Amino acid sequence: MELLNGNEVSKKIKEEIRLKVAELKAAGKKTPHLAAILVGADGASMTYVAAKEKDCQEVGFDSTVLRFDASISEDELLAEVVKINNNPEIDGLIVQLPLPKHINEKKVTETISYKKDVDGFHPMNVGMMFKGLRTFLPATPYGIIKTLEHYQIETAGKHCVVIGRSDIVGKPMSALMLQKNCTVTVCHSKTKDVSHYTLDADIIIAAIGIPGYLKAEMVREGAVVIDVGITRVADETAKSGYRLKGDVDFDKVAPKCSYITPVPGGVGPMTRVGLLLNTLDAIELYSK
């Protein structure tokens, strides 16, 4: 069993990005600029945005974070998005989710210009992704693909089971694995006898949001397991009062695997790398 170490792979790719940014600057070209909008004071969201700021600093990107109170109206937030759409200095925009309940997330996502949608959520980018055209890929699936490539894990002709059908991970992940020449099965909360499919899988990507969902008896020997889940589980013995747990029962599943991602330190760092790669691509695709 070998760990798919997202921390190590992300460091390598971030160094490659840093060198490319240095080349852009040396040639007098535009420095990639990522903007983030943070609404409210959700602890996990604040931590994630701070990590993105640090990533930008490490690779030489410019970054801007706009913080708004949770009471901001939907119209006011949409107006801020439009301002950034019209700002030629900013190449990529993310609006950190979740948003307050009075704001329609779908409406906000679709208001972001597809040319700055480095999260890869806009319908235009989703459509281009499914067509196999060059575009911004959803950051988590993009990071998973880069991880598989780094470890030279064979995908052609393999059976990949994706557990979960969210717009953010499950659906785009299935499309990208098809493009990697896998035979893809998508399982979800309504699938009967998920084990029937996972026991036949060469690659399992668990993104269902249920801690410890994938058990050892659901995985065959030698499978590759990618754990997308990350849930805060109460733990009085931890200093923080909680611990992070993935969708995979790691301790029991890992001995059966050829490769497996840990939680944390697996998919998470690579999701942030996907965002950086999209922002770097924005310069080539859309910067004039």
Q: Give the N-to-C terminal Cα separation.
A: 47 Å
The CATH homologous superfamily of the largest domain is named NAD(P)-binding Rossmann-like Domain
The strand order across the widest sheet is: 1-11-8-7-5-6
Overall average residue pLDDT: 95
- The percent of residues in helical segments reads 40-55%
Low-pLDDT residue spans: none
Radius of gyration: 19 Å
Question: In words, what does this structure look like?
Answer:
- The protein is built from ten helices and eleven strands.
- A hairpin with a 7-residue loop joins β9 and β10.
- The protein folds into two domains: 87 residues, Rossmann fold, CATH 3.40.50.10860; 129 residues, NAD(P)-binding Rossmann-like Domain (Rossmann fold, 3-Layer(aba) Sandwich).
- A six-stranded parallel beta sheet has the order 1-11-8-7-5-6.
- It has 288 residues and is of the alpha/beta class.
